[in-house]
Each structure stands twice: as structure tokens, then as C-alpha cells.
Amino acid sequence: MAPHFAEEVYEHYQGCFENPQPSVFRTGWIETPESWNDSVLREEFQVLKQLRVEVNQLLEQARAAKVIGPSLEATVEIQIPVATVGGSSESLEDEDNMSQLVSSYASELGKLFITSEVVVTTGIASSGSGEEEEEKKVFVREVSVPKAGRCRLLIRRARQHKCPRCWTFTSKEKDALCVRCAAVLGSLADQ
User: Can you tell me the distance from the alpha carbon of 176 to that of 160, in angstroms, rounded to the nearest whole number?
Assistant: First the structure.
């Protein structure tokens, strides 16, 4: 559907181009300015993409165990280890890198992982706490990313209710809007 739409748009605006082609897909890519090449951002997103792969594998385990259905039914917890004084300076720097990176993108990680909630905590809790039944519903993976550090990922079923507007499991009450959707609709009603 999208390729057909792209062709229709190109056909309509074909006269705007210096070298019109018979198809939008023959026009090639536009050149991007060198100033757009941000190596730091590229490295950050390589780490985030690797975390996403790890989260997706855990989500699949949770789906297979029938703990969740769609990924929006999950909460992801990213536990960043506390830097230990006895560790090497390189490992301390890596752990700090992971902590800074995850913290700076914390508000966007739910969208990246396609989950309802992502919680970032400092310090890795022991996995021996809690009741055995609850432990079966948590999926854990230790992740180590070169030059970024390590963390522990935990996947569990979201504890809140599904928002009827955005479908995320972020509503405090059943069949009620989440805080974000309530604010959006409230601002629209005020107009």
C-alpha cells in the first residue's frame, strides 16, 4: 500500500523535480549534509538497538510462557549496577556510560521497546527474594554491551490497567484513561 501511495504522490509532484524519473523508486537517495553525521548519537543508538534485541528475546520468552500477549502488556526494568570501588577503572567507566545512556533516554525507552512501561533502577537486586510463584512470572537477562557497560533486564506483566485510548497498561483504574490521555483530552475540551 505505501509503495503505491508513494508512486501516486510522486506522479502528482513529478514536475517539481529537475530530472523526473518514471518511478519514485528510480530517483535515488537525496544527499544528506555531513553535519548530520553524529558519531556519538550513532554509538548511543547502537547500544539502544542491542538492548532492544535483548528485550525482544525476553518478551518472546514471556509470550511463550503465556505471561503476556502483546508487548504492551509488559513492564521492563533495567537495573544498572552500582559501581564498586574494587572494580577496574575501565569497568567503572563502562557502568557509568550505561547508567548515563539509559537515564538520558529513559522517557523514550517504552516507545523503543514497544512496552507500556520502562523502569530504570540503580543497583541489581538479588533474584532470590519474593515468592516462588511471582519469580516464575519474571524473566531476567544479564546484558553486557562493549564500551557501554552491563545491566540486568527484567520483564514482567504490567501491573496497571489498559488505557482504552492509547492501549498502554498505564491506567490506575480499569476502563479509565491514563494520566497522559486524560491530559490530552482535557486540553482539547478546554479549547
Answer: 11
125-137: pLDDT as tens digits: 554 444 444 556 8
Whether 184 and 151 share a structural domain: no
Q: Sign of dihedral through CA atoms 111, 117, 122, 127?
A: negative
**Cα–Cα distance measured from residue 34 to residue 130, given in angstroms and rounded to the nearest whole number:** 53
Q: What is d(CA 27, CA 58) in angstroms, rounded to the nearest whole number?
A: 41
The three three-digit cell numbers of residue 120, written as one number: 530504570
**Residue (of 164, 152, 70) closest to 119 by Cα position:** 152
Same domain, residue pair 149 and 82: yes
Q: Which residue has the cell 525476553?
A: 58
Section 183-188 average pLDDT: 93
Residues 46 and 68 placed together within one structural domain of the fold: yes
State the pTM of this model: 0.75
Domain total in the chain: 2
Q: In this structure, what CATH number is given to the domain that contains residue 55?
A: 3.30.2320.20
